[in-house]
């Protein structure tokens, strides 16, 4: 892949992310709307990091990309699970989120 192809792939990924963020719509429930928009935002970051792993050469940037993929993938899973609960009206564990091993605690 040439640099031009890399740039196109990055822009396509960002456009996809923005479409998905806007597609989430507005439910009138800030918590639901936040999660519905943040999930594609994080997915966009994962895709960008994946592209730099494929095409980048700098070891520190590649390490950062690996960390982004690991951290954001964990956050996507946590946000997705919480979004399902909130959409279903289930809030049996209000203190359980975020249950992330990286950004907010054990």
Mean pLDDT across all amino acids? 85
What pattern of helices and strands is seen along the backbone? HHH
Report the strand count: 0
Helix content: over 70%
Poorly predicted ranges (pLDDT <50, ≥5 residues)?
Answer: none
Number of separate helices: 3
Radius of gyration: 16 Å
Distance N terminus to C terminus?
40 Å
| Total separate domains | 1
Structural class: mainly alpha
State the major sheet: none
Which shape, going by the Cα principal axes? elongated
Q: Percent of residues in beta strands?
A: under 5%
Description of the molecule:
The protein contains 3 helices and no strands. It is mostly helical and 106 residues long. It has one domain.
Briefly say what this structure is.
With 106 residues, this protein is mainly α.
List the helices and strands and how they pair.
Blueprint (H helix, E strand, L loop, with lengths): L2 H21 L6 H26 L3 H29 L19
Task: Write out key terms for the chains shown.
106 residues; mainly alpha; 3 helices; 0% strand
């Amino acid at each position: 892949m040439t640099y031009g192809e890399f740039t196109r792939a990055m822009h396509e990924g960002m456009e996809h992310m923005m479409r998905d963020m806007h597609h989430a719509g507005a439910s009138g429930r800030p918590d639901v709307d936040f999660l519905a928009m943040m999930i594609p935002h994080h997915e966009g970051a994962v895709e960008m990091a994946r592209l730099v792993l494929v095409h980048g050469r700098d070891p520190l940037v590649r390490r950062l990309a690996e960390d982004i993929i690991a951290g954001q993938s964990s956050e996507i899973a946590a946000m997705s699970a919480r979004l399902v609960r909130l959409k279903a009206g289930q809030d049996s564990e209000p203190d359980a989120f975020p249950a992330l091993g990286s950004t907010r605690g054990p």
